[in-house]
């Protein structure tokens, strides 16, 4: 039976641990100015 | 042409370091946005995170390049500094800072750090192991040359072990493990009695090199795909390889027994001569 190669699992983990917080940071960085604009309005 | 292809195959994995430059792309965009919005705390966390990931990418590039040289026999020892461990640590730090910029709490940051280190080591593997050989001093044997041959052979065995990690068929992984274990026994035998190096010339110069080349090539082309006829061929090749390696090991052991027999005969003759 074929097993999931360790390297594929490693790449998946790296993608999740780098991209997910990166996207969250991007989301927060871009939503805070919008929120501030709304408060100013 | 063959040499070029082989170099390409060995150096191909070096490109894997690119993942550490490509995956942080969202952070690069977040950096630009934070720069314009003047969010300095987030900007600092994002900058630190990007520096850590790029630093890890740079050291990983170096580590993989030196590893390729080592497996090809172009350098006798792996680098003194465990570059992959340094990079795994930097990747962990980068993940912590990215998680902090993403608004995660302490627990979240810790989880990202652990998963990033595990992911790094699973994807890039660990640093090649350094092994020092203490070749016994025997008259008529160039200890330096034998040590160099042993180091080169050890590098090739580690190359086979590393390639085996990306093969998806457990049976092949087990067979390759057994083959490298026999190979290591042969090297220990040569280390103990360096005269064996000339007897194991074919093993050191031909078998090991071919074994490393075939395994790396199979691992490269069959990561996910399964092709029955090719699998059968590779299985037969591994069976042959194992019996050849075992045969070589037995030959060296038999030779030791033979020389022990001769030693005992000589000792007996000398004792008889001296009337003991």
Explain how this protein is built.
- The complex is a heterodimer of chains A (41) and B (276).
- Chain A has 41 residues and is mostly helical.
- Chain A has one helix spanning 6-40.
- The longest helix of chain A is centred in the middle third of the chain and has 35 residues, at 6-40.
- Chain B has helices at 2-11, 19-22, 25-37, 40-71, 83-101, 106-124, 143-164, 170-192, 196-199, 201-221, 228-273.
- Chain B folds into 2 domains: 2-124, no CATH class; 143-273, no CATH class.
- The mean pLDDT of chain B is 85.
- Classes of the chains: A mainly alpha (41), B mainly alpha (276).
- At the A-B interface, helix 1 of A face helix 3, helix 4, helix 5 and helix 6 of B.
Note the main attributes of this structure:
heterodimer, A: 41 residues, mainly alpha, 1 helix, rod-shaped, B: 276 residues, 2 domains, 11 helices, 77% helix, elongated
Structural class of chain A: mainly alpha
How large is the radius of gyration of chain B? 25 Å
Helix content of chain B: over 70%
Biggest interface, residues from each chain: A-B, 32 and 47 residues
Provide the helix percentage of chain A.
Answer: over 70%
Give the overall silhouette of chain B: elongated
Shape of chain A: rod-shaped
- Tell me the count of domains of chain B: 2
Poorly predicted regions of chain B: none
In whole angstroms, the N-to-C terminal distance of chain A is 62 Å
Strand content of chain A: under 5%
Average pLDDT reading of chain A:
80
**Average of pLDDT of chain B:** 85
Oligomer: heterodimer
Topology overview:
The complex is a heterodimer of chains A (41) and B (276).
Chain A: H1 6-40
Chain B: H1 2-11, H2 19-22, H3 25-37, H4 40-71, H5 83-101, H6 106-124, H7 143-164, H8 170-192, H9 196-199, H10 201-221, H11 228-273
Helix pairs in contact in B: 3-4, 4-5, 5-6, 7-8, 7-10, 8-11, 10-11
């Amino acid at each position: 039976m074929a097993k999931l190669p360790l390297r594929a699992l490693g790449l998946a983990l790296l993608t999740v641990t780098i991209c997910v917080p990166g996207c969250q940071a991007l989301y927060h960085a871009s939503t805070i100015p919008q929120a501030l604009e709304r408060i100013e309005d | 042409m063959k040499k070029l292809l082989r170099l390409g195959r060995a150096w191909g994995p070096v490109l894997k370091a690119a993942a550490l430059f490509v995956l942080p792309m969202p952070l690069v965009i977040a950096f630009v946005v934070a720069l314009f919005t003047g969010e300095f705390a987030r900007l600092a966390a994002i900058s630190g995170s990007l520096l850590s990931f790029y630093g890890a990418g740079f050291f990983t590039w170096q580590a993989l390049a030196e590893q390729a040289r080592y497996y090809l026999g172009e350098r006798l020892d792996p680098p003194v500094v465990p570059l992959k461990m340094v990079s795994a640590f930097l990747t962990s730090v980068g993940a912590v800072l990215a998680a902090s910029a993403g608004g995660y709490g302490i627990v979240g940051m810790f989880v990202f750090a652990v998963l990033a280190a595990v992911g790094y080591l699973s994807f890039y593997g660990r640093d090649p192991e350094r092994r020092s050989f203490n070749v016994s001093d025997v008259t008529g044997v160039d200890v330096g040359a034998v040590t160099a041959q042993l180091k080169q052979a050890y590098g090739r065995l580690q190359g086979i072990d590393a390639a085996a990690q990306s093969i998806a068929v457990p049976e092949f992984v087990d067979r390759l493990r057994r083959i490298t274990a026999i190979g290591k026994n042969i090297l220990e035998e040569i280390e103990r009695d360096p005269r064996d190096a000339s007897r194991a010339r074919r093993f050191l110069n031909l078998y090991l090199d071919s074994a490393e080349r075939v395994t790396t090539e199979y691992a490269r082309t069959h990561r996910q795909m399964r092709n029955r006829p090719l699998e059968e061929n590779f299985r037969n090749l591994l069976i042959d390889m194992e019996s050849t390696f075992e045969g070589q090991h037995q030959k060296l052991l038999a030779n030791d027994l033979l020389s022990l027999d001769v030693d005992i005969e000589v000792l007996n003759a000398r004792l008889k001569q001296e009337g003991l």
